[in-house]
From TrEMBL:
Protein name: Ribosome hibernation promoting factor
GO cellular component, one term: cytosolic small ribosomal subunit
InterPro entries membership: HPF/YfiA_ribosome-assoc, HPF_long/plastid, RHF-like, RHF/RaiA, Ribosom_S30AE_C, Ribosom_S30AE_C_sf
Assigned keywords, A-Z: Coiled coil, Cytoplasm, Translation regulation
Domain named Sigma 54 modulation/S30EA ribosomal protein C-terminal: residues: 130-183
PANTHER family in the record: 30S RIBOSOMAL PROTEIN (PTHR33231)
GO biological process per UniProt: negative regulation of translational elongation
The organism's taxonomic lineage, starting at the top: Bacteria, Pseudomonadati, Pseudomonadota, Alphaproteobacteria, Rhodobacterales
SUPFAM superfamilies membership: Ribosome binding protein Y (YfiA homologue)
Family under the similarity heading: Belongs to the HPF/YfiA ribosome-associated protein family. Long HPF subfamily.
Subunit structure: Associates exclusively with 100S ribosomes, which are dimers of 70S ribosomes.
Coiled-coil positions: 73-100
Amino acid sequence: MRYQITGKQIDIGEALQTHVKTELGEAVAKYAERPTSATVVFSKSASEYSCETVVSLSTGLTAQATGKAHEIYAAFDASREKMEKQLRRYKRRLKDHHKDRTQPVELFGASSYILASEAEGVESEPDSLQPIIVAEMETQVPSLSVGEAVMQMELAGAPVLVFRNEAKSGLNVVYRRDDGNIGWIDP
C-alpha cells in the first residue's frame, strides 16, 4: 500500500509516520484485501489536533474518516478506529450482499467545477445568469449497483454520489435526505 502522510503547517516526525504505517496497515489489512493507497493529513486548530484519513481500495471504493483529540497520536487513533469500523461494515456487506462482483469497479472521467458563491451582504443584480467558475477538476464516476453506490456514499461520508447504474447504463444519483433516509434519482 502506498502511504502519503502530511501535516498542514505542522511537522510530522519519523516516529509518527512509522506509527501510522504500522497501525493503519494492520487495520486495513484485517478488513480489505487489496488496499492501493492511504492519505493521512494532520492539522492543528487551537489546542486540538485533527487527522483525516482516506484509504482507496482496489475495488474502486474509498473509505474516509476523521479523528480529533488534544494529542496528535490520539487524533490518529480516533481516525483509525472510525476507519476500521467502516471497513468492517463494508466487508460484512460485501459478504452478505455483493458476492457476485468479480471485476473491479469501472471508473469514467468527468469534469467537476467549483462555482463562486454569492457575496454576503451584496444584493445587486448579476450581470448574467452564468456562474463564475472558481476551479475546474477531473473527477471519476464509478459504475456501481444502487446498493454499492449507497455503501460508497456512506463510506466516503458524502451527502451525495453520482454514479453510472450497472443495470441500466445511465447516470444516477443517491443522496442523504434531511429526514435521514437515502434518496435515489433514476432519470
